[in-house]
Design brief:
The protein is α+β, with helices and mostly antiparallel strands. The chain contains 7 helices and 18 strands.
Length: 278
């Protein structure tokens, strides 16, 4: 909770600049200190073994065979490496951040119209730890039609903060990305929520970096066709993705809250009535 008692914005802006220093001493010392606080920094999976800066390590790409994407059309795959958090059904326009801490879907998305269409939809929260792979990918085939970037705070999104700070996801900087499904089905929505230290996001195909210099709600023209597993963009530090799918999807049987899931593995499975479609 210490990070949430510090001037978060200024600390985040400072860390963003500091992490990009290409000084070998600073880089090596920073990564070693980072490793003291985590036990799962899997750098052996990275495409390269040498990093020019701490930032370069944060946004590392993986070796080609490090993740396998499940091509089964009856599953939506995890868009990122993450710890599975709260999940369930959107009810009365709300979902859960943590037990006893509901928040408004309309506030999260920055628009009531989009939120109204998600009533009864299934949601799942995916928390990226700082040590994890920071890039996120398409959970299904589809077309990205426009982006909505919402500026905000930079609260830490760890479990302690989620149980103490109400509406945390609605306070933080975030990006709403809608995947229009193929064939014509209800869209799948990813809400990428940034956090403290390096709160900025990069979307492939967009020339600019989405960061704290923006203000308010920003509708950004953008169009791109993607296939399941295609990389969409990356966070510049650990954060969270809240994923929404229509009511015909539910969490796969083998996944539970608290599990670590890797990008490309089955996350949601299609149901028909009470039967799961294999």
């Amino acid at each position: 909770m210490l990070t949430n008692r510090l001037p978060r914005r200024w600390l985040t802006l400072f860390m963003g600049r500091f992490s990009k220093l290409e000084n070998p001493i600073i880089r090596t010392l920073s990564i070693r200190i980072w490793q003291l606080f985590v036990d799962d920094l899997r750098l052996h999976e990275a495409k390269k073994s040498h990093f020019s800066s701490l930032h370069d390590c944060f946004i590392r790409e993986l070796k080609t065979d490090a993740r396998q994407v499940d091509r089964n059309p009856n599953v939506l795959t995890s868009p990122c490496d993450a710890v599975v958090g709260e999940h369930g059904t959107v009810s009365s326009g709300q979902v859960l951040q943590a037990k006893g801490f509901p928040y408004s879907v309309a506030e999260l998305l920055g628009t009531r119209d989009a939120a109204a269409e998600l009533e009864g939809a299934y949601f799942v929260t995916l928390r990226l730890k700082s040590s994890m792979y920071h890039r996120f990918h398409a959970p299904c085939d589809g077309n990205v039609a426009g982006l909505r970037y919402i500026s905000g705070d930079t609260w830490n999104v760890n479990p302690i903060a989620l149980k103490k700070v109400e509406r945390l996801f609605c306070r933080n900087e975030r990006l709403v990305l809608t995947l229009e499904r193929e064939p014509a089905e209800a869209p799948t929505i990813l809400v990428a929520v940034a956090a403290i230290l390096v709160a900025s996001m990069r979307i492939h195909g967009l020339d600019e970096t989405l960061n704290l210099e923006y203000a308010g709600v920003n509708e950004i023209p953008f169009e791109r066709h993607v296939r399941k597993g295609d990389e969409l963009g990356y966070f510049e530090h650990g954060s969270t993705i809240v994923m929404f799918a229509d009511p015909s999807w539910t969490l796969v049987d083998s996944v539970e809250t608290g599990d670590v899931i890797r990008m490309g593995r089955p996350l949601l499975q299609r149901t028909k009535g009470n039967e799961v479609q294999a």
